[in-house]
Write a structure and sequence with these properties.
Its main location: secreted. The protein is about 15% helix and about 25% strand. The chain is α/β, with parallel strands linked by helices. The chain starts with 6 loop residues before the first helix and ends in a 12-residue tail after the last helix.
C-alpha cells in the first residue's frame, strides 16, 4: 500500500486499520501478511490480532467491562479448526479461548467429506411437495396458519437442521479467520455469550431447508425462514469486525415462487435481539442479501427497553434489500458507513418503536431510480438524528443529502429531528461523508492480513 502524506489519507488509514499496531505497519509500509510465521498455522500477525481487545471508546461494545474476547486464553484454549465438528467443540465453555478458522467450513459437510442435502435432514413425514399440496390456499385457506401432521414434520425437520448448522458460541471467545476463511451453511449463535469477538470471516448462505408458510403474514401471506449468519441474543459486549456477509451462490433471486409469494430461505445476516446490549459492528461488508440486520425482534415494551445499544461504523451495505439496520428501542450510532443502493431494494434504515438512531456522515449511492425519500422507513418510530449525509442520486452530481427532509416531504407523519442523545463512544473522529468510501475500502474479510 502506497504511503499517503496528506492529513485525510492518514486519518483514513487510522480508521480502517483498527489497532495501534496496524497503524504502525501501514505507516511504515510493512505488510502484515509478510510478517507471518509458520505457514502451516497462525502466523505472528494473526496471533497479535487474536489477542487484540476492542479499543477503548470504540463504540458501545467498549462500554462497561469492555470487550476482550479470548485475549487472555492460555495455550490449552487456543484452537485451529478446519471442519464443522472441530469448530463446534472449540466454541464451547466459558474459559477465555481463541479459535482460528482455516479454509472453508461447510455445515452441510460431514467429517468424512460427505455433503448433506435438505432431503437428508428432512423428517420422514415431510416433503416440500406434500407441504405445498396440503397448505395451498385453495385447499387450506388463508384464515389460519398451517397445523397438523405435515406441519409437525416440518418442525421436526427444522430441529434436525438446527442441530447440524447452528453452533453456539460460549462467552470470552475470539474467533478469527485465517486468510479467506469461510463459514458456509452455518449460524454462529451468540446467545448468552458475553464478551465475544468475531473477525475476518466470510459468512455465506445460512439457507433454511424448511421455510414456514404463513398465510396470515400480511395481506398475501409470506414464507418465513430461520437461521441468521450471525445471531446475537441475550449477550453483552460483542464486537463483530471485518467480516463479509452474503448469500453466496444461492441468492434469493434464484428462489422459486409458491402461492404467489417468494420462497424465502434466508433470514438475517447479523441480527442483534432478545435484550442484547453493548455491541460494536465495524468494517464489515454486507452484500447480496435481503434482511440484513434486525436490532430488536419485538414491539413488546419490556426487557429490551434500555438495551440494544449498538454502534455501526465503517461498514459497507452493498445491494442489500432492507434492515441496514431496522431498529427497535435501542440507541444506535450509525456513522461513516457506505450504502450502495440498487434495484433490489426496500429501504435502508428502519425506525421502529422507541428507536433512537443517530446517523452521521454516511455515504449513499442511489441508482436504478431509487430516491432519497426511500432510505428511511417508518416502523412505529418517531425520531432520528441525521447529520452530514453525502452521496449521489442517479446520475446527479455528488453532494450533501438531507434524507430526513426528503422522507418528511413525501410522508406523514414526519419524523422528528432529534433522537434525544449524542454518541460519545467513538475511538475515531468521523470523517466527512465524501471521504467515507475511502475509509471503507479495507472493510470486509481478508483485509486484516491474518494468515
Amino acid at each position: 500500500m502506497r504511503r499517503q502524506d496528506n492529513v485525510v489519507g492518514r486519518r483514513v488509514r487510522r480508521v480502517v486499520a483498527g489497532s495501534a499496531l496496524g497503524v504502525l505497519l501501514l505507516l511504515t509500509g510493512a505488510s502484515p501478511a509478510a510478517a507471518t510465521g509458520d505457514p502451516s498455522g497462525p502466523g505472528w500477525w494473526a496471533q497479535q490480532l487474536a489477542r487484540q481487545p476492542l479499543a477503548a471508546n470504540d463504540g458501545w461494545a467498549a462500554s462497561g467491562a469492555g470487550t476482550t474476547g479470548g485475549s487472555a486464553a492460555d495455550d490449552a484454549h487456543v484452537f485451529t479448526v478446519r471442519n464443522r465438528d472441530e469448530l463446534a467443540a472449540a466454541l464451547t465453555g466459558a474459559d477465555p479461548k481463541i479459535v482460528f478458522v482455516e479454509g472453508v467450513i461447510d455445515g452441510l459437510k460431514t467429517a468424512d467429506g460427505t455433503t448433506l442435502t435438505c432431503a437428508d435432514l428432512a423428517d420422514p413425514g415431510y416433503t416440500l411437495e406434500s407441504y405445498l399440496a396440503a397448505y395451498d390456499p385453495a385447499v387450506w385457506g388463508r384464515a389460519t396458519d398451517p397445523s397438523g401432521p405435515i406441519e409437525q414434520a416440518r418442525v421436526r425437520s427444522v430441529a434436525n437442521q438446527r442441530a447440524r448448522t447452528e453452533l453456539r458460541v460460549g462467552p470470552n471467545t475470539t474467533i478469527l479467520g485465517l486468510g479467506h476463511a469461510t463459514l458456509r451453511h452455518l449460524t454462529l449463535m451468540i446467545d448468552g455469550g458475553n464478551n465475544v469477538i468475531v473477525r475476518n470471516l466470510n459468512f455465506e448462505d445460512a439457507a433454511d431447508c424448511f421455510p414456514r408458510w404463513r398465510p396470515t403474514d400480511g395481506a398475501e401471506g409470506n414464507w418465513n425462514s430461520e437461521y441468521d449468519l450471525v445471531s446475537v441474543r441475550r449477550s453483552t459486549n460483542v464486537w463483530i469486525d471485518h467480516n463479509t456477509f452474503s448469500d453466496g451462490d444461492n441468492p434469493d433471486a434464484n428462489q422459486p415462487v409458491y402461492f404467489g409469494r417468494p420462497y424465502q430461505v434466508h433470514d438475517g445476516a447479523c441480527d442483534i435481539t432478545h435484550t442484547s446490549d453493548l455491541v460494536t459492528v465495524s468494517a464489515n461488508v454486507f452484500t447480496d442479501h435481503d434482511k440484513t440486520m434486525l436490532i430488536g425482534s419485538s414491539d413488546t415494551v419490556g426487557p429490551d427497553v434500555g438495551k440494544l445499544r449498538v454502534t455501526l461504523r465503517h461498514n459497507v451495505f452493498d445491494g442489500v434489500g432492507q434492515r441496514a439496520p431496522r431498529v427497535r428501542f435501542g440507541q444506535v450510532d450509525v456513522y461513516n458507513n457506505t450504502f450502495r443502493i440498487a434495484e433490489f431494494y426496500d429501504y435502508s434504515v428502519g425506525l421502529g418503536i422507541q428507536s433512537a438512531v443517530y446517523l452521521e456522515n454516511n455515504h449513499f449511492t442511489l441508482t436504478d431510480g431509487i430516491t432519497a425519500d426511500r432510505v428511511l422507513k417508518d416502523w412505529k418510530g418517531t425520531v432520528v438524528t441525521e447529520r452530514g449525509s453525502y452521496g449521489r442520486v442517479g446520475s446527479g452530481r455528488p453532494g450533501p443529502l438531507n434524507l430526513l427532509a426528503a422522507y418528511n416531504a413525501v410522508n406523514d407523519p414526519d419524523f422528528g429531528a432529534d433522537a434525544g442523545w449524542t454518541p460519545t463512544l467513538r475511538a475515531y473522529q468521523p470523517l466527512p461523508g465524501w471521504a467515507v468510501p475511502l475509509a471503507t475500502l479495507l472493510s470486509g474479510a481478508g483485509k486484516l492480513g491474518a494468515r
